[in-house]
Amino acid sequence: MNERLRFAMAQLNLLVGDVAGNTDAVIAAATEARDRLGAQLVFFPELTLTGYPPDDLLLRPDFIAAVERGLDRIAAQTRGITVIVGAPRLEAGHLHNAALVIRDGAVVAHYAKHELPTYGVFDDLRYFTPGDAPCVVDVAGCRVGVTICEDAWHAGPVGQAAAAGADLIVNLNASPFDQYKGSARASVLRDRIAETGLPILYCNMAGGQDEVVYDGGSCAFDGNGDLMSRAPHFDTGLYPVDVECIHGRWTPLEGAIEPSLSAEAVVYEALVWGVRDYVEKNHFPGVVIGLSGGIDSALVAAIAVDALGSDRVHCVMMPTRYTSQMSHTDAGMIAEALGVRYDTVAIESVFNEFQSALSPVFGDRPADVTEENLQSRIRGTLLMAVSNKLGGLVLATGNKSEMAVGYATLYGDMVGGFSPLKDIFKTEVYRLAHYRNGLGEVIPERVLSRPPSAELAPDQKDTDSLPEYAELDAILAAYVEEDASIEEIVDHGHDRETVEQVVRLLHRNEYKRRQAAPGVKVTTKAFGRDRRYPITSGFGRQPG
Ligand SMILES: Nc1ncnc2c1ncn2[C@@H]1O[C@H](COP(=O)(O)OP(=O)(O)OC[C@H]2O[C@@H]([n+]3cccc(C(=O)O)c3)[C@H](O)[C@@H]2O)[C@@H](O)[C@H]1O
Ligand SMILES: Nc1ncnc2c1ncn2[C@@H]1O[C@H](COP(=O)(O)OP(=O)(O)OP(=O)(O)O)[C@@H](O)[C@H]1O
Ligand SMILES: NC(=O)CC[C@H](N)C(=O)O
């Protein structure tokens, strides 16, 4: 029996639906783990061959057949190493979210995920039948218990593997990023270790997939719950973990521990990754952004440049009579600091033409929000024209505070294919902008200090229509993320009328959010796939 073995965690960026490409990536990583690292075992993230979440692709027989062909290829091309790979698997008419143990040309064991999450962004139970048996495989004398992601968040599956004689646990993950996830993962893994005394090797995905970002950070904990090694967050690679049998107990040895990132850095990196992978995986040459001189579009432009490089970011300033000189100057400075292409397209004449065309319909009705929205829609139309002609993806610039209360124009500033700040409260926008400026100033200081304005009417300020953002965000965080009631929020010291107004706006604007572009999830409750509410609903629109 070997006393020391090398296992490898393949922290890969996979493309949902690309079974052939993901299979190639598995074969390449297994070959490298065997030949370069000299590993005896390599294991991969959850649902490696399909990417996660594959959603209703799982209902297609031709998709499941492609997965079987991928598994056959892996079996044929990865001899001399044990491979544990995630894939959907049909057994006796039931589809499992499975981990397949492949060795010397064949699938030698099969584990079906027990705990199927059906909350937040997860829909496992829509597709899969849960398993109930443990899977423990012998790898050169070390008995490896196999589990999949959510399994580690409950006592049962790891305990079962321990009872079945496992020496250590490997856990295959597709664990989406949110700003609290890092500590939550460490805490549940330590709970499992406290229950069983078994080390856990945790391999996560990396990369963006529509509204989720996988942040990597694959790691190994020993049987005391001590962190022995951790792969970088927001990176891909093959990370070795040496395990040794000491007095009959297998334990991971100390390896590199990548430092954790600051609270702002981790969120900023998640946004950069989310934008990059959305653009790259959907084959866009670059992005187009309406740059107003305000903080939101400035931050989106900075994220886009960090994701794609300045030559793939195109900013367009579209002034009207309400655009201040300061906005002109600041937008120009931001574009210059970021080194992006910057065009100015005045929309005053278009705005006037629209108003003349509509005047027979509107008669002598006074100007109101209609005219404000018209400016926004002209900008949206022009950005989409630039996208159509030059090919870039339009990035929407709305933040979570605005999306919550409907402070955005449908088919206006809401146009765009991806919305990087969709899950970022306005107060957090400021923190991220300061963080980004700390890496090299790209947003002029006064953009961070001047009061936010939509500049759609004379001397307009966001606070004309909304509470101060610090108060709005506190109310939203309590109501949206903690599901607090109006009473509870008032009890925490907020003004009742303001809370009721915010709650009414929140529920009333579900229709806008349903039509909004996807954006990167960074909180525990992101609008969209993560937090699903009915559009047509009586709840919360009236107090009581
Ligand atoms: N339940 C429902 N289901 C489906 N559609 C529904 C609907 N309720 C209204 N609608 C439709 O939505 C329309 C109202 O929405 P919308 O047209 O967006 O207009 P609305 O929400 O009335 O106005 C946009 C708001 O966004 C603010 N804003 C803030 C910052 C930036 C910008 C900007 O544009 O740059 C704008 C602006 O000041 C104003 O308060 C209705 O006229 C109706 O057609
Ligand atoms: N003059 C403009 N030129 C180009 N785009 C604009 C202009 N004004 C608004 N936009 C676009 O519409 C979005 C909404 O802008 P608005 O200023 O109304 O609200 P905001 O949420 O404060 O955003 P920002 O902080 O970017 O100004 C902007 O982020 C920008 O993409
Ligand atoms: N794919 C999963 O089972 C992930 C669920 C798990 N709670 C996580 O977010 O890490």
Provide a short characterization of the protein structure.
It comes from Spiribacter insolitus. By secondary structure, this protein is an alpha/beta fold.
Descriptive notes:
The protein is α/β, with parallel strands linked by helices and 544 residues long. It is 38% helix and 19% strand. Strands 5-4-3-2-1-14-15 form a seven-stranded mixed sheet. Helix 1 (19-35) runs parallel beside helix 2 and helix 6 crosses helix 12. Adenosine-5'-triphosphate binds at residues 290-292, 294-297, 317-319, 323, 379, 397, 402, 413, 452, 454-455. In the C-terminal section; belongs to the NAD synthetase family. Residues 5-245 form the CN hydrolase domain. GO terms for molecular function: NAD+ synthase (glutamine-hydrolyzing) activity. L-glutamine binds at residues 119, 175, 181.
